[in-house]
Amino acid sequence: MIISALKSSVVSDKRSPIHIDTVKNLVNLGLEIWFENGIGEGINVSNESFIDAGLKMHSREDCLKNGNLIITNQALENIDIDLIKPSSTILGMVNPFSSQNLIDACSKSKINLVSMEFIPRITRAQKMDVLSSQANLAGYVAVIESAKHLTTALPMMMTAAGTLKPAKVFVIGVGVAGLQAIATAKRLGARVEAFDTRDVVEEQVNSLGAKFVKIDLGETGETDQGYAKELTEDQIQKQKDLQSKVCERSDIVITTAQLFGRPAPMLVDNNTIDKMMPGSVIFDMAVESGGNVEGSQIDNIVERNGVKIVGISNLASKVSSHASLALSNNYNNWISDFYNKEKSSLNFDFEDEIIQSSVLVYDGKIMNERFQ
Ligand code: NAD
């Protein structure tokens, strides 16, 4: 079986779907691995290093034409799909909620499609969970990037020239990214507060040494996959009003609130921004899925009354080597679990919960009813 690993064509995405420290595992499974010329540019790994590790370099076109399993960090366009042979499989982060075209094209051409965004949240699948592996790094990057825009230091410093107060950081949304943002800000010495509609996270926030902000919104809760349920308009308004006071006293506000498969909720509006201190920073981690902050823009810093509103796409790409290592491990783990060495093919066993959830198209059929 030939695995083809593709380079991302998005300029800000420097991540590679394969990593030099993890490819050995696939080579040991007896798989032939082809990679697109220049795949390691964003992580400082040369073509030669991959060739030395036993991989073969080819053009994108040849990778697409010959791969039985194609690994990609982005949704493929029709021009790519047209080159792939029937019965091949695409495995990767394919942005499914914006990729109905890709899903339909795969179905038409009988190309199997595995969306790593749909890896179920069960213990056995944690090692394949791309959303968590990348959100974790993104949470770290959000703090580092926010700190760069602040004109104060994060930790308290007691110096002969006076005591410098620690920065106050407020994290809205305590999923994987939010937890890492809290942990990173704490390590850098900031005073951290956090809020989430899922009150089950209060204990996790406290265990990181941060303070959970209590806002009573009535019935909230989470889905069986651990995702937040959407709030009503009244609940959102109440949340905005009550968390506004915390924003006012914060130097950095990091928003991470997302809703799986739906636009992110708008949580920080101009009313709140106008009450914040000049020089403070709002980092909108949800900017790519609709945004949590009024006026935030993708890959832009918007200033309003001295408050900087930062929105950066592809956050995990800012630490591209670690992001690639984690992604490559996620893909490897999926392949290792479902590759049948004797038959030299993938084992699409739809009794398996991971296959059931992550395979969107199989043998021409759209398997997930959301996309039918
Ligand atoms: P996410 O990216 O969907 O959302 C980020 C956070 O925003 C969530 O915590 C969500 O509750 C919160 N949020 C949504 N609306 C909000 C609002 N109006 N105000 C404030 N916060 C709001 O979430 P995620 O990072 O995918 O994680 C969600 C949960 O799933 C976490 O508890 C995480 O630990 C858990 N998880 C479990 C597994 C597993 O068991 N394998 C894997 C990954 C994550």
Structural summary, described in words:
- The chain is α/β, with parallel strands linked by helices and 372 residues long.
- The mean pLDDT is 95.
- The chain has helices spanning 23-28, 47-52, 60-66, 78-81, 100-109, 130-149, 176-187, 202-207, 233-248, 270-273, 320-338, 353-358, and strands spanning 2-5, 32-36, 56-58, 69-72, 89-92, 112-115, 157-159, 162-164, 168-172, 191-195, 211-212, 252-255, 281-284, 300-304, 307-311, 339-340, 345-346, 359-362, 365-366.
- It contains 12 helices and 19 strands.
- It starts with a strand and ends in a 6-residue tail after the last strand.
- Bound molecules: nicotinamide-adenine-dinucleotide (NAD).
Query: Quick one: biggest sheet?
Result: 8 strands, mixed
State mean pLDDT (0 to 100 scale). Answer: 95
Give the terminus-to-terminus CA distance.
30 Å
Q: Using the alpha-carbon principal axes, give the shape.
A: globular
Q: Could you list the spans in which at least 5 consecutive residues all have pLDDT below 50?
A: none
Question: Strand portion, in percent?
Answer: 15-25%
> What share of the residues lie within helices?
25-40%
Please tag this protein with its features:
seven-stranded mixed sheet; 12 helices; 372 residues; binds nicotinamide-adenine-dinucleotide; alpha/beta; 19 strands
